[in-house]
Amino acid sequence: MLHYVTTNDGKVREAREYLDAVEAVDFDYTEVQADDLGPIAARGAREAYAHVGGPVLVDDAGLFLEGFDGFPGPYSAYVEHTLGVERVGELARQQAAETDETPRAQFRCVLAYCDGEGFAATPDAVDYGDRRGHDLAADERGTASTSDSVVSGDLPVKLFTGTVRGRIVEPRGEGGFGYDPIFEHDGKTLAEMTAAEKNAISHRGRALATFAEFYAER
């Protein structure tokens, strides 16, 4: 059984389009601060594996604006709730107008998989955690707990990335959620797409498709 750490029923439904025997797990793992999605999802996968005791899948996703060094990226949820989606769109379009460029962006999703075992070399990244940080913490206390070793790098985590590219536009559409109304792909914002259309180009779906191929062999 593969345990998908989420409380979002939509994510589970999407995962089941690619995978058999997926079970949702409600687990509040630590969301570390990082400028990249990978370390955040990997840390969560280690904690979830220690909690569940079996194969786990954790995802993290965000909107990455070109011209803003990837902002808001891993901080997308926080920025959505503080700055607001429309304001993010305004900033992106304003910056693009000043440089006479198209306000391009991408949605990116990273899936982190951990089952307590190592991984053979493949094109997909493997996160081994911050082993040095673990050793320093152990030295300071004179010992290291089992949970410390689990989340700090003793367990490798396989990472799978999915991306969908588009551009930032004035808000359009009544569907979707979050940044969907300002993100246009192939002439439609994600908020204008049906669920089937959106799932067909989903960044999470693309990551799931790659993971499913790996998992079938695993």
- What portion of residues belong to β-strands? 15-25%
Radius of gyration: 19 Å
CATH architecture: Alpha-Beta Complex
Query: What's the order of the H and E elements?
Result: EHEHEHHEEHHEEEHH
- What is the assembly state of the chains in this entry? single chain
The tally of structural domains comes to 1
Family: Belongs to the HAM1 NTPase family.
Pfam families: Ham1p_like
GO molecular function, one term: hydrolase activity
Protein name: Non-canonical purine NTP pyrophosphatase
Account of the protein in words:
- This protein is an alpha+beta fold and 218 residues long.
- The protein has a single domain (2-217), classed as Maf protein.
- It has 8 helices and 8 strands.
- It has helices at 9-16, 37-52, 76-82, 85-98, 131-141, 146-154, 195-201, 203-217; strands spanning 2-5, 22-25, 56-65, 104-114, 126-127, 157-168, 183-185, 188-189.
- Strands 1, 2, 3, 4, 5, 6, 7 and 8 form an 8-stranded mixed sheet that branches.
- A hairpin with a 2-residue loop joins strand 7 (183-185) and strand 8.
- The radius of gyration is 19 Å and the shape is globular.
